[in-house]
Amino acid sequence: MSSLVAYEDSESEDDDHDRTEEGFTASLQTGSFKQNQDVKMCHSPKITPCPHSFTLDPDSSVLEYHENASERSISSLHPHSQPQSWDGKYCSDRTAPKQHFRDTAAPLSLPVTPRIISPMQTLPHMSQSFSDGLNSAKRHHTVQPGVRPYIPKRQRLGPSVEITDPKHPGVQASGNQTRESQILSEVSARVKPYLAHKAGAAGVPRRLLTRLGGHQGPVNTVQWCPVPQLSHLLMSASMDKTFKVWDGAESGRCLRVYTCHSGAVRDACWTPCGRRLLTGSFDNTAVITDVETGQQLVKLDNQFKVMCAVLHPSDPHVFLCGGYSSMVKAWDSRSCKVEKVYKAGVQQTLDILFLRGGVDFISSSDCVSRDSADRTLIAWDYQTTARLSNQIYQERFTCPSLALHPLEESFVAQTNGDYMAAFSSQRPFRMNKRRRFEGHKVEGYAVQCEFSLDGSILASGSSTGSAHFYDYHNAHMLHTLRAHSQPCLCVAQHPVLPATAATCDWAGEIKVWQ
């Protein structure tokens, strides 16, 4: 009589390894196993003996496991024989205590298919040389000559991120150092003294603090991290298909280079937590990336070149994408599905701005007729996708960028008429014709505008390479900073440090001013 016996595997291995199983048979005799052939198993050279025993259930011929057994004896009962007794006691109930059989039955030889046996299931006959180092085999694998080591799938499909070596800023370190160089763990020494005090009145920067280089194409936008403790981090997005994170407030060192896009990165922004980045690219995708690890958390195909990507102010899991399409799409990053679609008879969307609370938003397009720009700015109801108004701006200029005032119910639009216009953010979104910010040049470039944290200063780049700072309430120019020799596309004012701003230009250069 023969029966198959398989030993359970008590440990699960993360990485699959090839194992060769040959000729492993055992003879169940009064308390001993006999091994006819040697066991050939990869990565499991030894197994530690353990004081455990196995017994055979008399009713079902099932091999059972016992701990701390002083004796090890296994026998088999003939299927037609009567239930045996242990120590003179008759037992026919399976729930009775399992003890050792008396040596009354004939020996049974069973072919056994071995698996990796945990130390808690080690058989008593196995030698010490086979048992030593079972646990170490799981973590330490010897790579034989000519054999390529196994790489886990998670590591093979890991983040496409380059890390700058702190000792050599110009040299990119390997991706394995992601965990060693934590960029979200410490507060900058320059920012820390200002965290305990309430932010005062915004100031205008006057002198150059740091020059940042490394992008091989125009830098479309720069943005400081919105979290005060992490506000030393500066993000930049470029036409060279990369976006980077810098230590902009102190050392000026590039901390991360992200290469998850195959096209120019047209727009980028931080999430409110400061640990993720939302980017839109000309490769038709919008990507949410983990700042620390560089891992792509979400990647969505819009089926058009993305010009702008904006997070919902009340729900950071929802964001809008616009670009070379007549549609604006609302995505949910949790389900990776399009939640809403806003359709307008335009060729492309240049910028999107959520108004207070995220109930309404404004989209800017390139649709200009001969006499008016009746669809240049369109107001939308976010929930119903209905157009609220397309008669907001009646002049014949496109608006490449929009900015919301942080405190007042108003927003401004950068126009190709070389001025910024002010509007009410409440319906019917009337334009303030007495407040116009002039003195800079746009000339078709995607020049951005931005408010200071207290809303008192409005900053704008210029096609002449200058950075301009305006008093928002009287529209007077406060200062003109000769920042770049190429068109200055963005001016980002620091949320914590007073009179500090970052600028970027068409040549790929970034500068920090104070």
Automatic annotation (TrEMBL):
Residues 26-36, 71-85 have a biased composition (Polar residues). PROSITE patterns: WD_REPEATS_2, WD_REPEATS_REGION. It holds the Pfam family ANAPC4_WD40. SMART domains: WD40. Keywords: WD repeat. SUPFAM superfamilies: WD40 repeat-like. Residues 1-36, 66-95, 159-180 are annotated as: Disordered. WD repeats lie at residues 212-247, 258-299. Residues 429-491 form the Anaphase-promoting complex subunit 4-like WD40 domain. The keyword Lipid biosynthesis does not apply. PANTHER family: TRANSDUCIN/WD40 REPEAT-LIKE SUPERFAMILY PROTEIN, WD REPEAT-CONTAINING PROTEIN 25. This is WD repeat-containing protein 25.
